[in-house]
Write a structure and sequence with these properties.
This protein is α+β, with helices and mostly antiparallel strands. It has 10 helices and 13 strands. The protein binds adenosine-5'-diphosphate (ADP) and magnesium ion. Adenosine-5'-diphosphate binds at residues 120, 140, 142, 146-149, 152, 178-181, 185, 207-208, 255, 257, 267-268.
Length: 308
């Protein structure tokens, strides 16, 4: 990575938030929380709601460093990262290639397989044609490039498969049909290459969907997850391998299912994890003794160019 920035305190930090994706509202919450934290730490930070005119806004506001608090399309998938590379503005998080590969669950899973990282068996579908699907329910059907469990269905009988695939394809791009992993849901937050305590997610009605994620009381979180040491080591090891295999940087969160025989299956890597005050990443960091403000500052320190 090039240009690790010194003397960040004198620089003008633009916190990029909002944006054009389905996850705009969550991004605004993340962005506002980050902005507040950076200001508290004494940085010259300004919030920027990202629209099509973002390049000219960055120039007009004389932004030296970008803190990317965007989720989904254009913000988390390498697009904004590429623009910042061209403009020579150092940015937080993962680089262009890493972001775009991680955003596409099909590409990311191929990388995991290449590196011997366990991930649920899957088949890709790019049109309404199910003739090639060999996996039998229960399966999980999801859009390849969405987040926040948007468009995700758990299919328990074959008859429900076409509808679930159609729903997933509505988001554009391909869809995945994935083997359903019965087990415990875990997430590992990684900050500048270091794993934070593992969190176990227990949705009250069994599925960690958009509502379970963002409604208070719908989900129980165990911080840290209660795991035997060797299992914890395996989970953290898989998460770090996934982070490294995709060449991630800064803060990222790896979602996993702990299946039969305590095998951790990596579901996905979120290269811009939610950072609302209630999000999982700051929860894990708090357990490691870091305040929200410390995490924001550490993420900022990871800013650079030519990251992957
Ligand atoms: N293969 C699977 N087996 C069991 N549950 C799954 C599987 N894939 C996804 N899920 C459930 O769906 C949720 C969303 O899936 P995920 O792959 O993390 O996509 P995203 O969070 O980007 O929407 C997960 O948090 C988990 O609860
Ligand atoms: Mg997820």
């Amino acid at each position: 990575m090039r240009s690790v920035i010194r003397g960040l305190k004198g620089k003008r930090i633009g916190v990029l938030m909002g944006g054009l994706s389905e996850e705009r509202e969550i991004s605004l919450l993340t962005g506002r929380a980050i902005l507040k934290a950076l200001k508290q730490k004494g940085y010259d930070a300004v919030g920027i709601d990202v629209g099509r005119d973002i390049a000219s806004v960055l120039v007009k506001k004389r932004i030296d460093v970008a803190f990317i608090a965007l989720h989904g399309r254009y913000g988390e998938d390498g697009c904004v990262q590429g623009m910042l590379e061209v403009m020579g503005i150092p940015y937080t998080g993962s680089g262009v290639r890493s972001s775009s590969v991680a955003m596409d669950k099909i590409s990311a899973k191929k990388v995991f397989l290449h590196h011997g990282i366990s991930t649920a068996r899957f088949e890709a579908v790019d049109k309404d044609d199910l003739s090639g699907i060999r996996l039998k329910p229960p399966v999980v059907v999801k859009p390849a490039t969405q987040g926040s469990a948007i468009g995700v269905s758990i299919v328990r009988k074959r008859a429900d498969l076409p509808g679930a695939v159609r729903k997933a394809l509505r988001f554009g791009g391909a869809a995945l049909v994935e083997e359903f992993i019965e087990g415990r849901e875990l997430t590992v937050s990684i900050l500048n290459g270091r794993a934070l305590p593992v969190i176990e997610i227990r949705p009250k009605d069994g599925f960690y969907d958009y509502r379970a994620k963002y409604t208070k009381g719908m989900t129980e979180y165990l911080v840290p997850a209660l795991l035997k040491k060797p299992v914890e080591d395996k989970v953290v090891g898989s998460a770090l391998e996934a982070y490294r295999a995709l060449k991630c940087g800064g803060g990222a969160r790896v979602d996993l299912m702990l299946g039969k025989g305590d095998v951790p299956y990596v579901l996905e890597v979120n290269t811009i994890p939610g950072m609302t005050e209630l999000s999982l990443f700051p929860k894990a960091a708090a357990h490691a003794g870091m305040t929200y403000e410390d995490v924001a500052e550490e993420m900022l320190k990871g800013a650079g160019l030519d990251k992957d």
